Predict the 3D structure of the following.
Amino acid sequence: MVIKIVEMIVSPILAFVIGVFFLGLSRKIMARIHRRYGPPITQPIIDMIKLFYQKSVSHGILFDLGVVLSLTGSVVVILFIPFGGMCPLSGSGGLLAILYLMLLAPLGMALSGGEGANPNISIGISRKFILSLGYEVPFLFVILAIMTHYKTISIVEIVRAQQGLHWSIFSLPLLLSAIAYFIILPAILGIRPFDIVSAPQEIASGPMVEYGGKYLAFASIDHALHLFIGIALFVDLFLGGAREPITFFIKMLVVFIIGLFINAVFPRFRIEQAIKFLWKWPTFFAFLGLIVALVVR
Amino acid sequence: MDRGKISKWLKYPEKMGHKYSLWAIYFATGCGIMEIPPVLTSRWDAERFGVLPAATPRQANLFLITGYVSVKTLRPIVRTYELMREPKYTVGFGSCPINGGMYWDSYNTIKRVDKYIPIDGWIAGCMPRPESIFIAVTKLWMMIDKGAATGYIRYRENYRYYRENQERILGKLDWPPLYPEKMGEDNG
Amino acid sequence: MKIMDREENLREEILSVFKNTEVSSPKRKRLTVITEKALISEVMKFLKDRGFKQLCAISCIDWIEEKEFELIYHLSSFESGIHAMVKTKIDRENPVMKSMIPVFTNAQTYEREIWEMFGVQFEGNPRLIPLFLDRWRDIPPFRKDFDIREYVKRTFDVIPSLEEKQNG
């Protein structure tokens, strides 16, 4: 019992640290790809410290609560994800709970943005939901294929079944699912080429237009947590998870850096191009994976 | 640069945060904006000093006024400045915001921007090189360190003076005063 | 056909149709048409039919001693490469001109600018509203009798700086 409570406290903090590390690393690697020197790896922390010391302006109660809801959603999802043998809420829900809770973050942002009353926010929010519609379809197929293949909805069971290099990426139906998931990963994380939601040049960072000071700090914490969730889920579902945190972290790092190279060189999709793309290739691979999983079974 | 000093971070987290994370909103009023893209991209790379372009005034804390300010652009400049959250720093870029520059006798150009909004530092030149932006940033660090970059406090204290000057040029402003409590008292 | 011949042919053609009009060609690929105020619309239409499809700009000169404004319409032809200037003079005291929008649609913005800077009224232009200036209360600034330095002193320089204000 005590261990569970400790895990509940430790795992969000660990997720935050890793997420922020990834943010800093991504800025540094991006800079090197652009042939720049780049900021120090601690730059996201410096930004957050500054933002917490800046004065911020509120636009109403929902404006505050939306940010909190979005952050809470992310923290709760983290409690469901096994992180190197550590999974505080392993007994309940599993993949289905994750699937639903992952929608809390955009929902919180939408609630908060509705109070902000800025036209850019409405555009950003509508794009966010359209994009979710785009990636939820292949994501659902991926999850279904995995659940069919392992005959369980518990993510802990799935990780256990993959022990000893029986990674699901090495079996054919789930290889297709892994490809599909890897393609939609940037859309889930909201980074390029799917960063149309918060495109700073056209809609002035979308849902975050009215955020300043502490709100922006919370939004960037949320982004860091989201980065952790998206990649940790990939590692858990396809790369066999890990028994100890270090191995898990290394696996995450590999996935993240491969994803970052794609992120660094591609331009941004328009929203209808993004939907067209997401409903074509990832959906095709995910659907094929589901069919094969059903047949093989 | 004392960005790596942990002891200083623990002692003054506020100052250090503001120093090494300057998010700039730059107002493309005139020719000065041409110097900004090389500063931000690979050639000079301002990000290594923590200077980033901000998307909106709410997120920014450094305001770069690049180039001459015409009467029509003064209005959005004032609005942008008032939208920014405190503490905020302003830098006038080029000789035109300082005293009008080559537009010293123009009928439609604001001659001294610091009569309408407070300016923390100036970069002289027509045009200043991108390196001078970095010199300005390092000077701004020193000023923040000493507590001398007090433009936003000056604005709050003398709000009535600034608002009167703005209304003198622009006519009646169609947004409410930022510090209504300062409008009543005389601080001349 | 020799190169100079195109300008010469055009000159003769214009002179045969319009009276009270001077046409000259100061150098190769240039054509200057000086005509009277009433004829300008017809001249422009005529030139448009001869291939001058683009209205590049409209400029205005304030001849304060003659008490006249001179309007210059710059036309250009993509076929022959000739740059034609159609000039006319209007009264300075009552500067009214017919709008050129029916012939060239893009004249609207040029006329709006000249209305703002010189105060020339263009009849038939539906959008004569301020373009560059913000709440201008003085005489139009490009007129010769507008004293810029005096205006700058009166408007911008009288505002005290913060130090001056604080030191009294």
About this structure: The mean pLDDT of chain C is 85. The interface with chain B takes residues 132-135, 141, 146, 148-149, 151-152, 155-157, 159-162, 165-166 of chain C (CB under 8 Å).
